[in-house]
Design goal:
By secondary structure, this protein is of the alpha/beta class. Helices cover 32% and strands 24% of the residues. Strands 1, 2, 3, 4, 5, 6 and 7 form a 7-stranded mixed sheet that branches. Strand 1, helix 1 and strand 2 form a beta-alpha-beta unit. It binds inosinic acid. Inosinic acid binds next to strand 3 and helix 3.
Amino acid sequence: MRVWVATANRDKLKEIKRILEDEIEGIRVFSTLDLDEKIHILEDGKTLEENALKKAGALFEKVREWTIADDTGLEVYALDMRPGVYSARYSGGGYRDNVEKLLEELRDKEDRRARFRTVFAVISPEGKEWLFEGICEGSIIKEPRGDGGFGYDPVFLPDGYTQTFAELNPGEKDRISHRGRALKKVVEFLRGVAQPG
Ligand code: IMP
């Protein structure tokens, strides 16, 4: 089975590809990066669901094969679940600036609970759409720790763990992460519809 992943984010693609190839025998994973032409998608949806469908839809229009896309947000309880759908653009800068802004906003807050939420959109070759969600609850620590992962990983401590996402090994992160959990549902679904060969 051939599946297209609508992302040009190499960090994300690495995680998604690793899980799909480990879990579905014979799967071949392609991405936006394999296309000759560039597709520009404005992630201006008001929800993760809207953005995931928009990203998957834009790539699907080009390839007309199984296509998936995720949108992820960090939802911080003391910030009324911000930055959420705006997590990538939170500070206007890169990963480091986002983390810095987050720590600054949480400086005097006692409640440091947060969760990552991922929504995957899946589109079939016939153009039918499905959504799958994965959540990982945790908290935001005061200083970044670890150099694995990406984005907010160095300050996110998943519940029940003493290591941040950036300190866990990749397999461990996949097992408990928002994206890992949502993707597990996608894998179950794709296994159910996969044609042999
Ligand atoms: P996207 O819109 O789904 O690409 O993700 C929005 C932003 O959330 C990214 O730019 C990252 O900063 C952050 N993000 C997404 N997934 C993760 C993750 O697994 N760990 C840490 N940060 C993440």
